[in-house]
Amino acid sequence: MRITATRRGIAIGGALALTAGTLAGCAAGGEESGGGVEITYAVQAFSHDAIRPIVDEFTAETGITVKLESGPSSGADLLTQLVPAFNSGTSPYDVIDADDPAGAALVAGGWLEPLGDDVTGAYLDDLSEGMAESHELWNVADGNTYRLYHNYELGYSWANEQLLSAHGLTAPTTWDEIEQVGEALKPEGIYAFGDAASKPGLTFVYLAYLAAQAGGDIYAADSGTREAFEFAKELIDKGYSPKDALTWTYDQSNAAYMSDQLATMRQWTFFNDVAPGNAEWYAADKAVIVDPPAGPAGAKTWAGGWGMAVPKSAKNKDAAMKFVEWMNQPEHAVELATASSFFVTARTSVLSELGDDGIVAALKHYADSGFIVPRPYHPQAAQAETIVDDIGQSYLTGQMDIDEAMMQLKSQVEALG
Amino acid sequence: MTNSTTPVAANASSDAAAATAASLHESRFSVRWGVARVLGWMRLPKNFVLLGLILLAPALILRIFTSVYPFFATAWTSFTNSSAYVAEPHFVGFENYVAIFDNPSSRSALIFTITFAVVSTALELVIGFGLALLLNARFRLRGLGRALVLLPWAIPAIVSALGFRFIFADGSGLVPTFLAWFGVDIAWLTDPFWAQVAVILANVWRSVPFIAFVVLAGLQGVPDELYEAARVDGAGWWRTHLQIVLPLVMPVLITMGVFMVIFQIGTFDTILGMTGGGPGSATQVIPYLAYQDAFIGLNYGRSSALAMILFLIVLAVGVIALGRFRRAEVES
Chain B 50-79, CB below 8 Å of chain A: which residues? Predict the structure, then answer.
């Protein structure tokens, strides 16, 4: 068989291949199914089953079908996945779920559609005071709202009251008391306080928590921040807090707490489910949510959250807006919070309907007591938090002194612009 | 079926064969050899060249899209302020490079990247050579022994790194607990120096089997007659291995050394799994820093600049090593 290849043959073959490819691409890009509008909402997979019935209510009311897709479990993953698509003017999702740093990045990049007053009205009227402050800081830019919180997470103070009372102690309520408890428990090999603070990310979480209690602005490396850093180091140096917590993940800090190595710890909401799961260890008085310890600026903890937003390049923007509006009506916010802890917020409706028991009761107490402050804001939060991680760990492990740490923190954050 | 290659070969053979024959006198891949080949191709019939290009096209296109384009895209991005926070990145010259060298964390990462690669490789070569000698000896269940030694290499790096995170964990880890019996108290993962030692040891543990097996292959190529001759001449075990075996496997050791230095300059997963670059930035290496900048800090411009710096380091090591090899080859 003689093989001949001509330029014309190659050109025709190439054109056919391109046409076939283009047609195949078009076939996969349909927007609608079943005759009605379909939108895609990317939200973390673990919440799908819980919120599906509520989403179905929306479909029954509006005729808009909602496809739930597994959204990334971190804001950084979300940006890695979506920024290239947004850059090319497309979006695989009509509604996305973003955490605070990712939301700020998307706003700065100009990739989110402003949400109109009709979408935000009922939501804004329903915010508690602390949550309104977080919303204003993280979700609003140039007078436009870009994201609505459906999740509001904060670090709670957990105390093993059984262990403390066995040593004639009570949960520490101030920084000084942490040191006193630490001194009393040190001979027993028990730490007064612990928080997982490994890199990446967790060192920032811990130091921002202490900075809130010291009244510091962590990105300004001010006197409050300095006090917070110094207190964290003092706890380690005096043996009141484990140094190896600088390498711990949250699973490790939970394990240390549940093996009675820690008398108290700062931990997110999920420990409320983890603790009873350890049936051998658990007792109600071993995992009690107490007030955060008060530093120089009082008892504080910071909160952040995940929220819904509509990309500028979403295919069905009107339907997406309708969905965000519907999901954020107070009555639906309560339904969602009942269905999944990922949809618990400090909204007035949620706190008044569900605030009598469980984790929402603790949230209500923290909100009513004014313990909650917003997550430290920076327009380039992801980068700024990485800087705090690096410098915080360097200081806490003795690689730099406090003056150099504060100088480096200030200059590196300033360099971000 | 007609034999289409015969006339083609006949037409081309006189000149091309002459060029090829001439090139045989040149060392392979020399400039004159390459020119001769190209001149040979140019005298082939057009259809033949076209067919050749068509057959090459899939591989070429794949290479362009997976290597050439990403390389130039990364190089370009390193000169822009591209990040998740910037909708329309623009050219910023060497700003990213200056920022990297201005930052103490980046500078220490650069130093530790080289330290990590060089120290790891040195330890791997010494231990790997020793292990290869053991595996080359005759003993019962040698096959099983060889299989067991290879196990660490078969474990994904991220899995072994996470394992070592717990093995070295201060207070509860296997290593600190064991050393505590002898009164040795080391904070492996929270002390900057010992954290560096720990990640190097974990890396060495994983890579030694690979070196050992390659060296073992070299040892098996040493003829038995040489051992016998050495024995007849009265050389002991130590002298035989130092003066006969080692020089014979030296080319393998040098090749592996260069390969492992280049390979380990790009180490990322061990650091990610074990320390996240901490404590502080003590175990930070350039690849991890590039990852952190791109996927945590979302600063694509700076991350690309770090990737380019890494490329230049690998290129420098590669060029120096190849130059040395060539000289050694010529000398031999």
Answer: 50-51, 54
- Top-confidence residue, B254 or A311: A311
Q: Which domains does chain A have, with CATH numbers?
A: 35-152+305-374 (3.40.190.10), 156-299+378-415 (3.40.190.10)
Cβ neighbours, 10 Å, residue B286: 24
Cis amide linkage into residue B279, ω under 30° from 0: yes
- Please, which pLDDT band fits residue B8 given cuts at 50, 70 and 90? very low
Q: Does residue A391 belong to the interface with chain B, where contact is any CB pair within 8 Å?
A: yes
Whether B69 and B200 share a structural domain = no
For B88, nearest residue in chain A (alpha carbons)? A109
Mean pLDDT across B156-170: 92
Rounded mean pLDDT of chain B?
86
When CB atoms are compared, the residue of A105, A390, A393 closest to B298 is: A105
B295 and A CB contact within 8 Å: yes
Instruction: Please report, to the nearest 10 degrees, the dihedral formed by the alpha carbons of residues B134, B136, B139, B140 taken in order.
Output: 110
H helices of chain B, where? Answer: 5-24, 31-42, 46-63, 69-77, 95-102, 104-136, 142-154, 157-167, 174-180, 192-220, 224-232, 237-240, 246-265, 269-274, 286-295, 300-331
Q: What is the mean predicted confidence (pLDDT) over A113-120?
A: 94
pLDDT(B2) > 70: no
pLDDT digits (tens, 9 = 90+) for B95-115: 999 999 998 889 999 999 999
Among B88, B281, B298, B299, which would you mutate to test the A interface (most chain A Cβ atoms within 10 Å of its Cβ)? B298
B-interface mutation test, from A111, A247, A249, A397, most B Cβ less than 10 A away: A247
Q: Which domain range does residue B233 map to? A: 96-331
Q: What's residue B329's pLDDT? A: 63
